[in-house]
Specification:
This protein is of the alpha+beta class. The strands form 4 sheets. The chain has an 11-stranded mixed β-sheet with strand order 1-3-2-6-8-7-16-17-15-9-14, sandwiched between helices. The protein has a two-stranded antiparallel sheet with strand order 4-5. Strands 10-11 form a two-stranded antiparallel sheet. The longest helix has 22 residues. 49% of the residues are buried.
């Protein structure tokens, strides 16, 4: 019997026990061991009886006969399923609905976008002086013909090439494509044709988005040479909006952490440290002024964690607003795509271009996004989470271990109050609901990568690096024993969780917190943006649910903030960006973006530049 056949037979065998709720017991493994040692072609009731004492189970003789018969029947059916060509472009028929049963989104009419007014800058002597300007400023300069799309493209390409050797954020430059796009956009603006605020703005894509003619590596060695013959929906939409794709940017291997098959992506504020993950490259390039904006993805913290680490504005939209068509799947009911930018209004402009149904990702609803930069915090009901269990999030430990005020978080609260917001403390309704995230991810990620897992195709990801090796192969293997009944019931419990958060946001338009429990908020689908609030000496990670990158960052299941440090000299301790998480009700993304924009209008933390990358 070949190794592949044996693996498939074993998977079919184990699947039966999962289907009857015994997948997490010792019984399947014991029986399989007996079957292979005895070179038996079938499982008998005697073999089941022999395995029971080891597994801590007890069946009647009649039950043993039924189990053996069921296994023989299922074996062929499971083998047939494994022969189906299910690639990443196939969505499951099951769709997550974040709106609780019996509830409806409020009727909403599409309104014209209301942007803030940005003065047109004079053309600088060196275009590098534009590198850190937000999209709001760059777009006005392009519109006023102060700078050409091709000139911005040249400037940002040069910076990508200059700093990649230090920050390791590029997997593939799309230089030929970018220059061709820029020439077309130059000609259009010269004729007076302006596509809108993204016309001529260079950007970078997390390399789990398909781009025709270029590798789509998913950051993992087994897919290093993968080329997909189509463009992701988000790529198409940004092409249509006039944005210029410069590069496919790093992500931790298969959306885990900041370590990919080439290196570890670095934080521009301290290149001795990683940029967190898994949208490691998008956050690092945006923070170092090497693209106008970028697109990341999040399953649990993979936009917000690297954005927090690198001091940029990372926006995770409501689940079901941006099509994932053409993106690597990890968890079909929690994956989201969103912009990583230098300002909240930039994120609103990019989001407006990429949101809405595409006819393929049928989780996406048609629901208006009405950006109004003039919306004031005083017009909204604003709350905040102060406590995480027994810990006060507006306090922290200093270098001597003393409890001191979290000055940056307290300042955020004061700024909102100065803008007229009536801010009230709110209790987190589901502080312990994060366990559902792992139950759901286990099943969905295990299914997404089942076929390469069955033939050990991914094991190369575990070898060759002593520093932060991938834990995905073992995670996907363990998922093959996960009971289907637990997955179904986890989603039933998820419905109750969604109801609790729906009830919460009936009372509040926006809730902010220094530490978001991303394991919960990603499961319920609520939107979130992280914005920089200052600088402080970083604290050690203090537990689950800190927005640390989840599937995004690297360790246990994948979080670089949870991973043990490598056996190497410690990185220099320097002040790093601090951030605030701002959340809002599902499909009301403009509200939290407006609060973030108001804060950034009153402060300049989002304008700070890493000194090593001028």
């Amino acid at each position: 019997m070949s190794e592949t056949t044996t693996t498939v037979d074993r998977r079919a065998f184990m699947a039966y026990f999962s289907s009857i709720g015994l997948g997490s017991t010792l019984l399947p493994g014991v029986l399989w061991g007996q079957a292979t040692q005895q070179q038996a072609s079938e499982i008998s009731k005697e073999m089941i009886a022999g395995a029971e004492s080891i597994s801590g189970l007890s069946f009647t003789d009649e039950q043993r006969t039924a189990i053996a018969q069921g296994l023989r029947q299922l074996k062929g059916e499971a083998a047939s399923l494994h022969k189906e060509p299910l690639d990443m472009s196939v969505f499951p028929a099951i769709v997550f609905e974040p709106v609780p049963p019996g509830k409806k989104l409020a009727p909403k009419t599409k309104a014209p976008m209301q942007r803030s007014r940005a003065a047109v800058m004079a053309r600088p002597g060196s275009l590098d002086e534009l590198a850190y300007q937000p999209v709001t400023v760059l777009s006005e300069m392009v519109h006023a013909r102060k700078v050409k799309p091709s000139e911005l493209t040249d400037m940002y390409l040069a910076r990508l090439k200059r700093y990649d050797s230090q920050l390791h954020f590029v997997i593939t430059l799309t230089e030929e494509r970018a220059r061709k796009q820029a020439r077309v956009l130059d000609a259009e603006i010269a004729r007076g044709h302006y596509r809108g605020p993204l016309h001529g703005i260079p950007w970078g894509a997390k390399d789990l988005l398909a781009v025709k003619g270029y590798p789509t590596t998913w950051g993992a060695l087994p897919y290093k040479d993968q080329v997909l013959d189509y463009d992701a929906t988000v790529v198409k939409r940004l092409d249509d909006a006039g944005a210029v794709l410069l590069a496919k940017l790093t992500l931790g291997a298969l959306a885990q952490g900041d370590v990919w098959f080439g290196e570890r992506t670095r934080n521009p504020w301290n290149p001795a440290t990683g940029s967190s993950g898994s949208s490691a490259g998008p956050a690092s390039t945006t923070a170092s002024g090497c693209v106008g904006f970028s697109i990341g993805s999040e399953t649990n913290g993979s936009i917000t964690s690297p954005s927090r680490t690198c001091g940029v504005s990372g926006f995770r939209p409501t689940f079901g607003r941006v099509p994932r068509t053409g993106a690597m799947a990890l968890s079909w009911t929690t994956d989201k795509l969103g912009p990583i930018c230098r300002s909240a209004e930039d994120a609103a402009l990019v989001f407006a271009a990429i949101q809405g149904p595409d006819g393929y990702d049928y989780s996406v609803k048609e629901y208006p996004f009405n950006w109004n930069a003039a919306l004031k915090p005083s017009q909204l009901r604003v709350g905040y989470f102060k406590m995480s269990g027994q810990r006060n999030l507006f306090e922290r430990r200093d270098a001597e271990g003393n409890t001191v005020p979290n000055a940056e978080a307290l300042n955020f609260l004061k700024v909102l109050e100065s803008l007229g917001a009536k801010v009230v403390e709110v209790e987190d309704p589901t502080p312990n609901g994060g366990y559902l995230d792992d139950l759901i991810l286990h099943a969905e990620a295990g299914a997404a990568f089942q076929q390469p897992t069955l033939v050990s195709q991914l094991d190369v990801m575990m070898r060759g690096r002593t520093e932060f090796p991938s834990t995905w192969p073992d995670y996907f293997r363990a998922a093959q024993f996960y009971p289907a009944t637990d997955y179904v019931n986890a989603n039933r419990a998820r419905t109750l969780l969604c109801q609790q958060w729906w009830n919460l946001f009936e009372k509040y338009d926006v809730i902010f917190t220094p530490q978001e429990n991303t394991s919960v908020t990603n499961v319920v689908g609520t939107p979130s943006i992280v914005v920089p609030t200052g600088f402080a000496i970083p604290q050690p990670f203090q537990g689950r649910g800190a927005g640390g990158g989840g599937r995004g960052a690297g360790g246990g299941r994948g979080d670089s903030t949870r991973t043990a440090a490598p056996a190497a000299p410690p990185a220099p301790v320097v002040p790093l960006p601090t951030s605030m998480y701002i959340m809002g009700p599902i499909y009301q993304d403009e509200k939290l973006l407006a609060v973030a924009h108001a804060f950034q209008t009153a402060t300049d933390f989002h304008k700070k530049r890493p000194p090593q990358f001028p």
